[in-house]
Please model this.
Amino acid sequence: MIRIFLNRLVAFFFICFIGVTSSVFFVAALFIWLVTVLFDKRLRLLHLFTCLWASLYIWVFPLWSIKITNREKFDKNKTYVIVANHQSLVDILVASTLFVHFKWVSKRELFNFPLIGWNMRLNRYVRLRRGGEGNRKNIKKMYRACEKHLKRGSSVFVFPEGSRSETGTPGPFREGAFVLAKRRNVPVLPLAISGSRDTMENDKLYFLKKASIEIRVLDEIPPETFQDSTSKMLATQVRAVIARELLESK
Model:
């Protein structure tokens, strides 16, 4: 009972902390956008600042630690379709600690959040709306936005499961990210995220439990190796690579 109360108390202060810091960081982000938008077409500086903003919420908790393995496998001179397994809400914060340039593909609803969502709009991240009327049209719009970023040299980051895994084992991967890789003839860069599930309990942030989070950069998959594969075959292959890495790391 005491532990539940303490966790709720920490959660309350954490929400307040997010609100206060987001107000300050958004003003800074808006200033960076105004100063750089005319010459920084890919908004690289703004994205790096956003990575700092997001990483702060991982760093502030002494019971949460994060480790990045094989960071050198990320070639900053290349453009990738980056894919990762999805374990919890904090995976976005975890991936931000890489401090590499990319554009998120994220649910449209997140872009409506005050301050954080507004910053996502400033960064020109890609909105995705699934289901409902005009779903095919929405998917095509997402593809066009991603292809535009890839053409300009910005990597695109996708969670191909579409939703968080309840077991920690990656669910089936949707084909969208791999359609993009084949269309633009760019390498796929898989990431394996482990430990972030420990920050969640019943879909709520759980601050009083130790969480050792690790993000591992795996070997890129060059486009010439999947030219004869369908996007579905590629999705299955990449999921197997990430699942094997997660299993071997236990």
